[in-house]
């Protein structure tokens, strides 16, 4: 499991099934028709970041995805993590210079699209490649991880679907923003990148230490708090035998450590509600140190998902009812 479910495994699996072959054929046909009509020509840099609504989704996203991978940023004005993530995605869309297009969808104004994609918390980032939709990640994430995901998306688009991107005009609206120098590195960027690299290499202890080093100097650093919770989770589940852990929890429902282990496995496997529910019930059925241990683990798992996720809000309310 990559932090925040940031994995391109879905793309690879998608390309392996029949639907992906059909999507590739349709993409090739669409490009051939465009070429027959004289080609699409270069587009202004300003068209690399677009606002999309339900009415324009087919033309702005589905049709465009036959030429270039379209990254979708589901956001809302009230969402604080969205305000951190969206500017990064917009800057990267310009930097990738036609290899991706960023489509921004306001979930408050486009509830049908939100439901269609099964969005349960924002920010949520998806991609559409040759008409095929797939999740990329949810919540704010370190820029290094976002770049890695976009690089993999571009690679899959080229290798599996023949999407080589679109030509971008030199100059014109948006060019100054595209050519602007990258912002100076932050004081903790090197440590955060080292933590991401450690995660990629499976060195969870190293990632934990790197994130803790950041937090010792900047206790409110959002990326480090999120990364630490994820790295600790990955470290805990890495040594578990899932089948044995679930058997132990079923055989010994009063064993708090056994329940914590299965909750970790559930969250790592994407079964968020199951993990939260198990720990709420563990808190309900325990007292003293055992109850506190279960409560703290639940709070740690909230950090992994992000406080803006509605599943976290619902579970916080359930925990409060149990405690008070």
TrEMBL record:
Database matches in CDD domains: ybbN (cd02956)
Pfam family, one: Thioredoxin
Domain Thioredoxin positions: 37-155
UniProt-recorded Gene Ontology molecular function terms: protein-disulfide reductase activity
GO terms (BP aspect): response to stress
GO cellular component, one term: cytoplasm
Keyword entries, A-Z: Disulfide bond, Electron transport, Redox-active center, Transport
Top-level taxonomic group: Bacteria
PANTHER family: GEO12009P1
Family: Belongs to the thioredoxin family.
Protein name: Tetratricopeptide repeat protein
Native organism: Streptomyces montanisoli
